[in-house]
Specification:
This protein is mainly α. It contains eight helices and four strands, in the order ααββαααααβαβ. The chain has a two-stranded antiparallel sheet. The two termini are 30 Å apart.
């Protein structure tokens, strides 16, 4: 649970400090929202923060996770981690869509008042689904690899970037982004924990029929099941 709290804390700090839209001097006096941090600002989605780049990143993350998951299947560590990301993104999408339908908050581009909740079913600002998706996608990867490769924490920049970009596009308030990131991180953590419990019940024996294109195309490839695809202790090199 401690790595999850570190991830949430880092995302909260970075998302609060980085977005130009939240730090600009050119904003109206209208502010408030869930944490009292939301304030209306002009649209600034230019260059790296453009909506086109946001959509490209969405496609890249979803496509990469699905491609690795389908290619590697469930019998390799990479495949299992990728499936955790896919699972987390799907669960998080369902959660954020449900919250959007419940809270019906107007986006900054629709209404300059951050306190405009339950404004009608056409409004869907809270929380940020794309920020949540980015957090859900990277959290299982970070949790799985942080001990061996601490640099994997650099992936936390993806939800931070998406949150900043969505605010610059007037698509979300700061509280939308923060809650979205938290929902995604929790979804990623839950997916990783669920896979871990599932792996603990698997026998540590050779397997040759796991789901995945790689196994189908290379039928004689063998593997050994273990937590996240690692070899059992008695088969690891000393």
């Amino acid at each position: 649970m401690r790595p999850l709290l570190r991830l949430l804390g880092a995302a909260l700090l970075a998302t609060t400090l980085l977005p130009a839209s939240a730090q600009s001097d050119n904003y109206t006096a209208t502010r408030g929202g869930l944490f009292g941090w939301d304030r209306y600002d002009e649209r600034e989605d230019n260059g790296p923060l453009s909506r086109r780049n946001q959509m490209r990143l969405d496609a890249l993350v979803i496509g990469s996770a699905l491609s690795v998951a389908l290619w590697e299947g469930t019998d390799s560590r990479a495949g299992r981690i990728a499936w955790q990301s896919v699972d987390a993104m799907a669960t998080t999408a369902l959660a954020t869509e449900t919250m959007k339908r419940v809270f019906q908050r107007a986006r900054p581009a629709e209404e300059a008042n951050p306190n405009d909740w339950f404004a009608g079913s056409q409004h869907a600002s809270f929380p940020s689904g794309e920020t949540a998706m980015m957090a859900a996608a990277v959290t299982p990867v970070i949790l799985a690899l942080q001990d061996e490769h601490p640099s994997v924490w650099a992936l936390a920049a993806l939800p931070v970037y998406m949150g900043a970009a969505r605010m610059a596009s007037q698509g979300h308030w700061l509280s939308d982004v923060l809650v979205g990131g938290a929902v995604g991180a929790v979804g990623g953590w839950y997916a990783a924990q669920r896979q871990q419990h599932r792996d603990d019940g698997l026998p540590e024996e050779p397997c040759r029929h796991g789901f995945g294109l790689r196994q189908r195309l290379v039928p004689h490839r063998r593997c050994r099941r273990g937590s996240l695809g690692r070899l059992p202790a008695d088969h690891r090199p000393i």
